[in-house]
Structures are given as structure tokens and as C-alpha cells.
Amino acid sequence: MEQDPDARRLARIMHTTFFLLLGASLARFLLRHDWEARSPWIVALTGALASLYLLGPVIGTRATPRRIAWLGTVVAVWVLLVVLAPSFAWCAVPLFYTGLRTLPPRAALGLVALLTAFVVFAQVRLAHGGWDPNLIVAPPAVAALATGVFVYADRQAARQRALIDDLIRTRRELAAIERREGTLAERQRLSMEIHDTLAQGLSSQRMLLQAADRTWDGDPETARRHVRTAASIAERNLAEARRFVHDLAPADLAEGGGLEEALRGLAARESAAFRVDGAPVALPDRAQS
User: Fold this and answer.
1) Looking at the structure, do residues 58 and 125 belong to the same domain, yes or no?
2) Which sign does the torsion angle of CA 261, 267, 272, 276 carry?
3) What are the pLDDT tens digits along the chain (289 aa)?
């Protein structure tokens, strides 16, 4: 699933923070220590860690084996750096975010605990034997705060996605209900019109023809008049039937332009190309609809 803009923005902030902390840690080490045997290793590992971290966005954010292997390599290089130079410990904070974004909840919490333990280890080493409770309390507190904020934000994002999905599903259901209700209303209207026009006309024709049949031998003129009246009613019913068919036809066809003009208008509305191959052939209204 594609990340939302807020998630992408947070990821950029975390990536920037990681490189700032990494650069600051390297600068601190070089400024506070003379060039010694471990210095080339620290510089090389810093470059390797930066290069590996840059591969993260390329690999993606899904918890694939490739992504997990990448995360494990990044953490391993960071651990080596912390062992050689404890000042790199606080690069763990962006790694908290990366682990929480990549791993399942239990594995992510285990990784956070591991990173926190190394941060505590590094802080104790930097203290040079001096006792300070903050060295033990601060890293777990920061880790707990970062984890809590991430979990809360992730759950809020999941709730928002669920709400959006519910809204989309509800809109589709409402649209389907409206279509069904519209269809039922149209059927009801047609039923009433057929009853009031065609059915009444057919009933009148039947009565007139029956009357003509009864009076044909005794009063032929009256019988013929009944037949003419029935024919007139049949003509009106035929006109009504044609009107029904016309009303049921699509709007473009109902305008009388024919199938070609209707398709041309539809293509124009949809910004699509329309082309006629060969000579147009007239089709019945039913086939055109």
C-alpha cells in the first residue's frame, strides 16, 4: 500500500535526523580523539552505515526478506560502531522508527529493546565510571516514548484508513440503493401508465369487437362503426406504445439523431475518439437501444 503524505513526511524527517546524528557522532569522535588505530575503522563503518541506510528507500518499506536482511545489516554495522565509539549510540532513535515500520510488532519491540540496551551500554562507557541514574533511565524512557508515539500514530492512521474505506463502501451502497429505488419507481410509473392507457384501450377494443360480432348480422352498419372505433383506439394505443419505447430509450437516441450521433456524443463527453468504418445501416429502435 502506498504511504500517505504524512507518513512520507515523517520518513523524510527520520532519514534527515539519522544522517545528522551520524555526522555529529563522527565529528564528535574525530574532535575528541587523536587519530588512532580504531579511527580508520570508525570512518569506514560510518561511510558503510550511511551507504546502507541510503538503500532503505530503494528496497521499500514492506517487510520482505530483502528488507529485513537490510535492516539486520544496518543494525549490525551500528552495533559495531557503538562498540568502537559509544558516541554513535543516539543514531538508534531513527532506527527505532525504521524497525517499527518494518517488522511485526513483537519483533519490532525486541529490536527496540536491543537497541536501547546498546544505548545504555554506550552511555555508561561514556561516563568513564561515574554514576548517573539518567544514563540508565533516559535511554529506555526515550525508547518507550518514541515507540508509544509511533504506535499511536500508526493506529490513528489505520483508523482513518478504515473510516475512509467505510465511507467509500457506504457511498457505493447508497448509490446502489438509489439505483434500485429509481428502477422500482420507474417500473411503478410505467405500470400505472400501461394500466391507464394501453390496458384500458385494449379492454375497450375487446368490448367493441364483441359488440360488433353480436350485431353484425342484424345491424351491419352499427357493427362497422364499432370496428372503426376499435381501430381508432388501436391506433392511439400504438402511438402510446411507441411513446413508451421512446421514453425508455437512452437520452441521446431519444433526441432522434440515431445511433451514430448518440455514440458520437458519448465519445465527445468521455474525451474518446470515434470513427465510423463503412456505410451506416439503419437499425430498429430496439437494436439501437
Assistant:
1) yes
2) negative
3) 445 677 778 788 888 989 999 999 899 888 888 888 889 999 999 999 999 998 888 887 777 888 889 999 999 999 999 888 888 888 888 888 888 888 888 888 888 888 888 888 887 777 765 666 777 787 888 888 888 888 887 788 788 888 888 989 998 888 888 888 887 887 787 778 777 777 787 888 888 888 888 888 888 888 888 888 888 888 888 877 777 766 666 656 655 567 777 777 777 766 778 788 877 777 666 666 5
Residue 176 lies in a domain: no
Q: Which of 86, 113, 131 is the last residue of a domain?
A: 131
- C-alpha–C-alpha distance, residues 189 and 196, integer Å: 11
Is the Cα dihedral 23, 46, 89, 67 positive or negative? positive
Domain end (from 97, 131, 165): 131
Quick check: is 108 in a domain?
yes
Range of the domain at 51: 5-131
21 and 120 in a single domain? The answer is yes
**Number of domains observed in the structure of the chain:** 2
127 and 16 both lie in a single domain: yes
Question: What pTM, to 2 d.p., does this model score?
Answer: 0.53
